[in-house]
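Morning run. Coffee first, then this:
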Amino acid sequence: MIGIAGIIQNYLSDNDNVYVDLMPATPSECICIYDVAGRSPDFTFDGTKFRKPSIQVVVRSYTYDNGYSILQDVIESIENLEGTTQDGYQFLVVEQTSDVFSWDFADEKNRTYKCFAVNFNLEIFKQ
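And here it is:
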């Protein structure tokens, strides 16, 4: 069974450097989608479950401008999920819940990268 981060990874498949729940050491510039704690699901009287997961998107890049630009493109793509069906899940709500935040990252060879992240709450329904 594929998780929500995996569904987002598949959806962003035009970018080969998208990973799920573990940012690899290489490539140096990449995107990682993390499943993070969401909200309690809602159930209808007939037992239908509306899940409310959350995700975090992290971009690692050599430069501030490039990383920020990549993240903005990803934000726009994820926002376009609302009202679509992906891998059997209907995306009812896609809500960005944080502004972009950033930090510097240095690897074991002391190369410095810029990292950016943003969070989303989702409301989904399995069809």
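Residues 4-126 form a domain with the STM4215-like fold (CATH 3.30.2000.30). Good start to the day.
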